[in-house]
Amino acid sequence: MNKTQKGTAIGAAAGGVAGALIGKGSIWGTLAGAAVGGTAGYLIGHHMDKQAQEIKQAVPDAKVERVGEGIDMTFNSGLLFQINSSVLSEAAKVNLTKVANVFVKYPETNILIEGHTDNTGTPEYNMELSKKRAYAVSDFLTGKGVNSARMDIKWYGESQPKYPNDNESNRALNRRVELAITANDQMKQKAQQGSLN
C-alpha cells in the first residue's frame, strides 16, 4: 500500500481508536480524530501527500510524517530557540517563512501547534515556556500570511515526552514544537463530493 492507501485504511479504522487517543491531547489523537475514511479519506490523503512533500522540501531539518489523513511536523526546539528562550532564532525564521508559504498555498487545512519541553526546570516554568514557544511559532506564521483562524495553540510543558528524559540527546528531542495539519470542513466537503483536486 502507498501512503494514501494506508491513510484510507487508517481513516476507516480510526473511529474506534480516536476516542482513546484524543483524551491524551496528543498530536496523534488529533490526527486520528480528524480522519474521514473511505473514498473521501483517500482523496484527502492524496492531497496531504503533496503538501507533506512540499513541506519536506522546504524544511529538510524538520521531521515530517504522514499520519492517517493528516501531517505530523516536528521542529526540534534547538533549531527554533536558544535554551530557556522563546525568541525565534534567525534560522528558525527562515524555515518558518518557508513553511508559511506552503500553508498559504494550501488554505483548506487546520493547523494545531503544540509546545513541549523536557523535564529540566520546574513543571510550572516548563509549562509557561512551552506556551510562549507555541505562541511564538503561531504569531510568526500569522505575520507571514497564515490565517490565525486556522490555528489552534496548545502547550503541555514536560507532560508529553516522546522519549525518556534520561540523557541529553533524548531531552533535546522532547524540547519540541509539533504541528498537526488536518483537513478543514471545506476540504472534507469537497472530498465527499469528489471535487477535491
Brief overview:
With 197 residues, the protein is an alpha+beta fold. Helices cover 53% and strands 17% of the residues. α5 (90-105) crosses α6 (123-143).
Q: Can you offer a commentary on this structure?
A:
The chain is α+β, with helices and mostly antiparallel strands. The chain has one domain: 60s Ribosomal Protein L30, Chain: A (2-Layer Sandwich). About 55% of the residues lie in helices and about 15% in strands. The chain has a five-stranded mixed β-sheet with strand order 1-2-5-3-4, sandwiched between helices. Strand 3, helix 6 and strand 4 form a beta-alpha-beta unit.
What does the main sheet amount to? 5 strands, mixed
CATH class: Alpha Beta
What percentage of amino acids are in beta strands?
A: 15-25%
CATH second-level architecture: 2-Layer Sandwich
Q: How many domain regions?
A: 1
Shape: globular
What is the β-strand count?
A: 5
Head-to-tail CA distance between termini: 21 Å
- The pLDDT mean sits at 86
Q: What is the count of DSSP helices, taking H or I runs of 4+ residues?
A: 8
Name the structural class. Answer: alpha+beta
Would you give the CATH topology? 60s Ribosomal Protein L30, Chain: A
What series of H and E elements makes up the topology? Answer: HHHEEHHEHEHEH
Poorly predicted ranges: 1-24
Task: Tell me the helix content.
Answer: 40-55%
By CATH's scheme, which homologous superfamily applies? OmpA-like domain
Rg from C-alpha positions?
16 Å
